[in-house]
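call fold(seq) -> C-alpha cells
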Amino acid sequence: MNSKKGAGNFLLDLFFPNRCPFCDEFIPWNKFACDKCYSEILWTDEYVCKKCGKDSCICDTGLNYDLCYTAAYYKGNVKEAILGLKVKNALNFADIAAEVICYKMAIDGVDKKIDYIVPVPMTKEKQRLRGYNQAQEFGRSISRIIKASVRTDILFKNDSDVDQHELSAEERKENVKNLYYFKYNDEITGKTILLCDDVLTTGSTADKCSELLKECGAEMVIVAAAATTSLIL
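ret:
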C-alpha cells in the first residue's frame, strides 16, 4: 500500500517534490513514504474494537456511532505524521490511512454502503488561518477511493477558546456538548455516513458528531480515524 498511482503525481512531483510525511526526506514520486518510516508504522490490529475503535473497549458507555475503522496507533512516527497533517499540509499520511481504512472496509463489505463522507468540522476562523481542515483532506483521500461525496454543509463547529486536546477525558465530554451543530439537510435522511477525523482519542468528538448526524436523519454513522490512541501499547 506504499505506492501512488497516476501520471498526475509524476507531474506534480516536478514542481512540488514528494516528501515522506514522517521524516520529511525526499522520496520517489510514486511513494507515500520512505520504506524505513513505512515499516515502523504501528498499524491497528485485531485487538482494536470495530465498534468503538479502541483497544480498551468503550462500547459500554453507549455510543452514537455504529462502527469505527482506524489505520494506525497514535504512537511513534505516526504522531509526527499527524502533526505534519495538521500544520504542514503533509497529505501523504492522509492517503496512507485512507488506503488502509478503505481496504478494511472493503473486506467487511462496508465501503459500498457509504452514501456520504462528512469530516469533523473546524471553526471558520481556525480553518481560515490554517488554510484547510485536515479531517476534510482525509475525507477527500477516502473519497477518491470509494467515490462517495464529501459533505461540508452539514456539520459545523462553534468558536471556542479551548482546544479539545488540552482537556482531560471528562472535560472533553463536557466541552463537546455545545461545540458542534448541524444544519438540517434531508438528503442524508436514511443514509449511511462516514464521519472522518485525524485522531480518535476519548471518542467524545466522534460520538457527539454522530449524535448530531443521526438527529439530522442519518440511519448509520461509521467513524474513520487515521489514528487512534492506545491504552495497551
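The helical segments are 7-15, 35-39, 77-87, 92-108, 124-130, 134-146, 169-175, 204-215.
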